[in-house]
């Protein structure tokens, strides 16, 4: 029997052809192309008459088999070359306590990490292909009989209508599927931790995994979830609540401290205590710039140091961040361009912004400090309040997959507060969040959580 094999050598594993395909084809007995799937020890063999699939399959790592006596039929045999890196510890969501596994760029390996944590048939994985040029695989994960299928249908519908050429990372999908493309706030939670992805699936959420990306997307999400580190669940609930409140305070401090400084020295110096005012006046002696320019110079300098440290190689970046901050800060105070008090405030604000456990919300916090600064310069405390009202209105109107982004604060849901800016014990979290509208709302019977057996029972 004469046959031909067609493949692209750069995307297939030649060892598979030499060991698993050719020996069986040369020694085996087959009359039609339909016998190939039974003959070869390869699980992924597709028989088709659709010639339009030829190019797509070949460039995706399949071997095209054609038989002379069976024209018009094609067999695609999987022989992809898997180039993956070893599992490593999370870099962005690193935790002292808990698993030290992070997602990698291979979608099959990422799915395996989640399957290992959820070995149940109810875990559904649907694969789609996105991108006219990249043909990127996107996996939609959810648990049947728990998830609200409206969320799944919304994601599938938005992915189906995507008309984009290149999907290189999950960040592309996040921006394309967002409810509001003009919002600086991320509307999908980005994670590199398989344990976090598996946990939110149990809550009734949907997880998106994109081939080539070491980050998974979680939706729908809420604003307060971006201040939750998954390590909180490995700690006592009292300690975890303290850390969450500390993060909320740190972010609030990071946003408001510099605008309050500008507003106080520009419009409301009479509200500052006399002892504090004396310190501020002495620190600003010889500074030629008004408070707004002084604050902008330091804020932009901090951002330049951050960006330089992030883009340079690791060892050089750390040196630039530490030495640059010390040298520039000291030199600017000695040169009389800024006051030492404002330098302390800006440094503390920069330090406080690093407490956010999710990188993308940290970028948003860094950005919204500048509108607050501008409004503080224009109208003082009234401008800060006005800017806060604009921000609050935007957050209230924002949605994630059609669900309220500011839940449980708006709409107010008291029962969902137990695992937001505070975290109560596991025995208090017997039900899934209300805003997810899950099919099965109960995680475990509340009575069993409180019941403790004695040694003689």
TrEMBL record:
Keyword Transmembrane assigned: yes
Source organism superkingdom: Bacteria
Keyword NAD: no
Cleaved signal peptide residues: none
Alphabetized InterPro entries for the sequence: Spore_Ger, UPF0353/GerABKA_families
Family from the record: Belongs to the GerABKA family.
Protein name (Swiss-Prot/TrEMBL): Spore germination protein
Source organism: Heyndrickxia sporothermodurans
Taxonomic lineage: Bacteria, Bacillati, Bacillota, Bacilli, Bacillales
């Amino acid at each position: 029997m004469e046959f031909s094999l067609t493949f692209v050598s750069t995307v297939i594993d030649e060892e598979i052809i030499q060991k698993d395909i050719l020996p069986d084809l040369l020694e085996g007995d087959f009359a039609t192309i339909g016998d190939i799937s039974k003959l070869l020890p390869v699980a992924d063999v597709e028989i088709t008459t659709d010639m339009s699939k030829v190019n797509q399959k070949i460039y995706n790592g399949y071997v095209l088999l054609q038989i002379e006596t069976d024209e018009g039929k094609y067999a695609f045999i999987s022989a992809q070359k898997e180039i993956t890196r070893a599992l490593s510890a999370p870099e962005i969501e690193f935790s002292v306590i808990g698993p030290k596994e992070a997602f990698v760029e291979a979608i099959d390996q990422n799915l395996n990490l989640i399957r290992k944590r959820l070995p149940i048939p109810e875990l559904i994985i649907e694969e789609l292909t996105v991108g006219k040029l990249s043909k990127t695989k996107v996996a939609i994960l959810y648990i049947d009989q728990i998830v609200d299928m409206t969320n799944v249908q919304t994601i599938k519908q938005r992915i189906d209508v995507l008309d984009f050429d290149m999907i290189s990372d999950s960040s592309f999908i996040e921006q394309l599927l967002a409810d509001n493309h003009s919002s600086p706030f991320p509307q999908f939670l980005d994670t590199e931790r398989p344990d976090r992805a598996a946990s939110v699936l149990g809550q009734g959420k949907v997880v998106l995994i994109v081939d080539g990306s070491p980050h998974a997307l979680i939706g729908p999400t809420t604003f307060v979830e971006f201040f939750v580190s998954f390590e909180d669940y490995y700690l006592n609930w009292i300690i975890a609540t303290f850390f969450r409140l500390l993060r909320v305070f740190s972010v609030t401090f990071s946003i408001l401290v510099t605008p309050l400084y500008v507003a106080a020295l520009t419009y409301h110096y009479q509200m500052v205590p006399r002892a504090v005012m004396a310190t501020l006046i002495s620190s600003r002696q010889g500074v030629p710039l008004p408070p707004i320019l002084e604050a902008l110079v330091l804020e932009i300098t901090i951002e330049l140091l951050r960006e330089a440290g992030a883009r340079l190689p690791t060892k050089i970046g750390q040196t630039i961040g530490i030495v640059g901050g010390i040298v520039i800060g000291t030199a600017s105070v000695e040169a009389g361009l800024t006051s030492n008090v404002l330098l302390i405030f800006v440094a503390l604000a920069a330090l406080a912004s690093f407490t956010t456990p999710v990188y993308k919300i940290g970028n948003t916090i860094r950005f919204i400090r500048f509108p607050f600064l501008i409004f503080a310069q224009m109208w003082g405390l009234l401008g800060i309040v006005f800017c806060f009202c604009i921000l609050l209105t935007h957050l209230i109107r924002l949605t994630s997959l059609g669900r309220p982004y500011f839940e449980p604060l708006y709409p107010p849901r008291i029962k969902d507060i137990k695992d937001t800016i505070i975290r109560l014990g596991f025995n208090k979290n017997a039900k899934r969040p209300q805003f997810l509208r899950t099919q099965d709302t109960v995680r475990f019977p509340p009575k069993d959580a409180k019941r403790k057996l004695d040694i003689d029972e």
